[in-house]
Known about the structure:
alpha/beta, Quinone Oxidoreductase, Chain A, domain 1, Rossmann fold, 2 domains, 6-stranded parallel beta sheet, 10 helices, 27% helix, globular
Amino acid sequence: MKMRAFQQRQWGDDPDNCGLIEMDRPVPAPTELLVKVRAAGVNPVDHYTRLGVAYNRVLSLPFVNGWDVAGVVEEIGYGVTMFRPGDRVFGMPWFPRQAGAYAEYVTAPSRHFALMPANLSFAEAAALPLAGLTAWQMLVDVGQVRAAQRVLVTAAAGGVGHLAVQIAKAHGAHVIGTARATKHRFLYDLGVDEAIDYRTSDVSEVVKDVDVVIQMFGGEEALRTMTCLRPGGVMVNSQGAWTPGMDRQASELGVRATAFLVEPDSAGLENLTELIQAGELRVHVDRELPLAAALEAHDLMATARTSGKIVLTTDHEEKQ
Length: 320
């Protein structure tokens, strides 16, 4: 059987390097699920991977982009006990290896998925795994956020940031978020306590004595933001690989700095589900586009003018 997928043939931003094709539908191996994809979330790593500047050490061409998946279990491989056909699931399979979420079907280990929150649409569920797991693991697993702590979230209106704000608030923290002024109302609606326009204020000068920094940019900006920490505080930096000198400066300041990369985590997905069902977490979908419009989605995301997430949806016209 065949399926449609958005395939990358060469790295780079030339539109001719990729496009919608028809290819063989995958078959689940033992312990794997075959999931009929109803929606696929779009993340910055998708864009940078397409350009050939991220994680290519574990990827090869031709390549089907995307890691955020929400859909329906079509078939289970031998040994799967947690799911059955017809279950609505979401997940971030295989990251950073190829998951192939920009397609009508994916296969992956069953424990890379969790049951979808009952109150989410497929688009909302697809927007959650990579960004939500990133926020949860950075804040809870690494940052060990606690009640009454002060937390700074950079790029707080973005895919990871808008979820990190809510997760930190759910843990009782005082949250400071950075975003352009036009997005401040969005941040206050999420529960942020202080919103700072990074374009008109030097965050490193106006924010001090925070316990945890969730850092979404690397380089010199990350080094400056580290000075916002109190002695003994922690920066969790999703761009640590692109922040030379981070460990040295952390030692000089008496703080801790950790480079971070998200991992598949079904337990983390279940924690996110609990927050959603308790009304303490909501995922914001800025726009839904069809699978064929993947490049348009990347271009929109690259402008940094969207809030929350962009999602691709499939129509599932079956190909025999």
